[in-house]
Specification:
Number of domains: 1
Largest sheet: 2 strands, antiparallel
Number of helices: 12
Radius of gyration: 19 Å
Distance between the termini: 26 Å
Strand order of the largest sheet: 1-2
Number of strands: 4
Order of helices and strands: HEEHHHHHHHHHEEHH
Strand content: under 5%
């Protein structure tokens, strides 16, 4: 019986990886052609001649992940999969509206509260997060639903703000999701373990198109959907603390930005850019006091770097955070 169940889980995992990965590859290739044909292009500001790149790839990512989650749901009938899929879809649609109409900075966090509602409505959470070392769950029956309402907008916007250079956000989400996978395995929650695989497969395949030099950008529909799903996985799978630690570089980036501008605004609304482009197309930290503080600006504090070097530095930070998150998962096991 155990062997049969193991084979079923392995088969389901392999199926979701293959389906989500293949669909991401196919739909992204199609989107690149369609977006170019209809002129949905944006400048890649950090490169010579500012090439025009198709945007957004969000629909390809959303559909690919949703199909993977649907396969899992019809194999398990776990209500948490419905919550994950609904959160992903709502956040993705909000991002798509932003890609088309450019929502004001404070609209997105408010609208993204809607993406939190499926988790609460379906009861796909346990209001007792588990803390490391302490090893026991803390009861937050009254406060926890309010935290869920705030958490999804935070994770969605946090991932959105780390989308600054070619390949960064797809690689970052992939790395940050690995500790969640570890936590679910340690808990023996194989449904949530499998539910994480479409996200991993899609971000891994999308990275092939998004890496330097990018062939397509995810857009807000992509980044908000990925960030919201990440938060939903952490909540529904009771890996909240692990998820926060893995996301620390992106969280700090958002904190630095908000604390310096002192209000919720879009990066494109900032008058003074945090970095400037030199003649050799290396990037240097702005010396203006009006420029917001960001993770990139801090990385450039020692001197100019090119785009690839900055992306590598962010990846190193993401990897360190992921290792700390895995250690946290082991401490709570």
């Amino acid at each position: 019986m155990i062997t049969a169940e193991l084979y079923m889980n392995l088969g389901l995992a392999a199926t979701t990886i293959l389906v989500s990965g293949f669909l991401t590859y196919l739909l992204t290739k199609i989107l690149i052609k369609v977006l170019r044909r209809f002129g949905w292009l944006v400048e890649d500001a950090h490169k010579p001649n500012r090439p025009l790149i198709p945007r957004p790839a969000g629909p390809a990512l959303i559909v690919s992940i949703l199909v993977g989650e649907a396969i899992i749901y019809y194999s398990t009938f776990d209500v948490r999969i419905v919550a994950l899929s609904s959160t992903l879809t709502i956040a993705g649609l909000i991002g798509l509206v932003d890609d088309v109409k450019r929502l004001k900075g404070y609209y997105k966090p408010l609208l993204l509260i809607l993406a939190s509602l499926p988790i609460l409505a379906l009861g796909a959470y346990v209001p007792q997060p588990i803390f490391p070392i302490y090893g026991k769950s803390v009861r937050l029956f009254i406060v926890y639903p309010l935290l869920v309402l705030v958490a999804i907008p935070i994770t969605a916007n946090t991932i959105n703000t780390i989308d600054v250079f070619n390949g960064v956000v797809s690689r970052f989400v992939f790395i940050a999701s690995l500790p969640l996978l570890t936590a679910f395995a340690l808990q023996g929650d194989w449904i949530m373990f499998t539910a994480t695989l479409p996200l991993l497969a899609s971000t891994a395949v999308f990275y092939l198109f998004h890496k330097y030099p990018s062939k397509i950008f995810p857009g807000d529909s992509g980044t908000l959907a990925l960030g919201a799903l990440y938060g939903a996985l952490a909540i529904c799978g009771r890996a909240e603390v692990v998820g926060v630690i893995a996301l620390l570089p992106a969280i700090l980036n958002s904190f630095f930005f908000l604390s310096s501008v002192k209000r919720i605004i879009e990066h494109r609304e900032v008058k003074e850019r945090p970095v400037k482009i030199l003649q050799d197309f290396k990037l240097a930290a702005s010396r203006s006091r009006e420029a917001p503080v960001t993770l990139t600006r801090l990385i450039l504090a020692k001197g100019p770097l090119d785009e690839i070097e900055i992306a590598r530095a962010i990846t190193i930070l993401a990897t360190v955070a992921a290792v700390l998150a895995v250690v946290t998962a082991l401490l709570t096991w």
